[in-house]
Amino acid sequence: MVNISTTMAYIDGTLKARIVMQQCISARLQVKPATNEEEAEHVEVKRGVLIYVCFLKQADISIVEKMAKTLLNVRLCPSGNGKIVSILDLPGDVLIVPQSTLGGKAKGKMMQYHSNIAKVKASIILKAS
Predict the structure, then answer these.
(1) Ramachandran region, residue 13 (left: φ > 0; alpha: ψ -120 to 50; beta: rest)
(2) Per-chain mean pLDDT for the chain
(3) What general EC class does the enzyme of this chain belong to (predicted)?
(4) In Å, how far from its chain's centre is CA 52?
(5) pTM for the full model?
């Protein structure tokens, strides 16, 4: 069974981020491609959750604490006794993946990303998390 949860982060009625959480048994993400001189670099997690996040233009660093508290306490993972618990109740890993495509909006046959935050600002918010 795969558990996936989608959510949107609002503060003061303003949409600040879109998020998808996915339970995983293991996950591997390439963070640096291979070159002629070096092998590709990856990060890996074992049992836990993947959190895909897209910050929107209205996002700022104040959203991080509320998002982290909410996401870490969501009951998404089955425990050994069959109960659904949060990642904090398990020995589990968390992998946060920036995913700008979550901020897309369909317009005709094209996707537009005008609502997404600037890459540099998103990086600052992610490093705070």
Answers:
(1) left
(2) 84
(3) hydrolase
(4) 2
(5) 0.81
